[in-house]
Design a protein that fits this description.
Layout (H helix, E strand, L loop, with lengths): L1 H19 L6 H10 L10 H15 L3 H27 L6 H19 L2 H13 L12 H29 L11 H11 L9 H12 L4 H33 L3
Helix pairs in contact: 1-2, 1-4, 1-7, 1-10, 2-3, 2-10, 3-4, 4-5, 4-7, 4-8, 7-10, 8-9, 9-10
């Protein structure tokens, strides 16, 4: 139930970042665009998962692709940023994790700078204008106040997914585990997203989960089993949102 709710919230995130940015779309179209493109992330490069939902909204509403790309990338950046924040909470359960924790915290602070500062936007625009000297490029930008409005939806999304993962672990072990164990899943997913080469973060996410559970004292065989089960568990959610996206596209696409 929490897994399915999490995927609905994934659509809510996409719906809200568009509507708050005055590119109004219907919620059913947000579900369709996310659902029908959800498996594109398993293609190396992960770009198609962004292009897929952008293409759907562009075809339906004729909004400029540059703005839609900005919304999609910002949604992804905030998701990674908040996922790492949840992971830092989960890392508090590991003894002598300080070095790893400081590295992750440093990366999180760097990502915070890119999300909330105006300078990275100016740097990117200047580089593009130097490269394309014959044509002045004006990149669309999401204001900080809009970004702040989007963050609560990411908090709720990761909270639901982390709790779902905690219950998954609890159902597979005979011993009790800390509630904070569930909070490692968001950071595992986030690092999986960052690893562009691995389709869908396959292998990366599982390695992080196994390492974390092993540090907690869970038997390595149980840790591997849980990591594999988490992939299958999440795949069920992806199948769910794909089917839901297919249904909403057929019922509410206006065709």
């Amino acid at each position: 139930a929490l897994l399915f709710l999490g995927f609905i919230l994934l659509c809510v995130r996409w719906f809200m970042i568009n509507n708050i940015s005055n590119s109004n779309i219907k919620f059913f179209d947000a579900i369709s665009s996310v659902g029908l493109s959800v498996f594109a992330k398993y293609i190396p490069g992960k770009f198609l998962v962004v292009v897929g939902k952008i293409g759907y909204i562009n075809k339906k509403y004729n909004y400029p692709n540059d703005k839609l790309i900005t919304y999609a990338l910002m949604d992804q950046f905030i998701a990674i940023w908040m996922g790492i924040a949840f992971g830092i909470i989960g890392l508090n359960y590991i003894i002598n994790y300080q070095f790893i924790g400081y590295l992750i915290l440093a990366f999180w602070l760097l990502l915070s700078f890119f999300i909330f500062s105006y300078k990275p936007y100016l740097w990117t625009q200047n580089v593009l204008n130097r490269f394309f000297q014959k044509k002045k490029i004006e990149l669309p930008r999401i204001p900080v106040n809009v970004t702040i409005k989007i963050i609560p939806f990411h908090v709720i999304y990761w909270f639901v997914i982390a709790n779902g993962f905690y219950f998954l672990i609890s159902s597979m072990l005979t011993t009790e585990v800390s509630y904070l164990t569930g909070y490692i899943f968001p950071i595992a997913v986030s690092i999986g997203i960052i690893s562009i080469i691995a389709p869908g973060g396959i292998g990366v996410r599982e390695t992080i989960i196994v390492g974390y559970l092993s540090f907690m004292g869970i038997d390595i065989n149980d840790a591997v089993t849980i990591s594999v089960a988490s992939r299958l568990w999440f795949l069920i959610g992806e199948i769910f949102i794909f089917i839901l996206g297919f249904i909403t596209d057929r019922l509410f696409s206006g065709k």
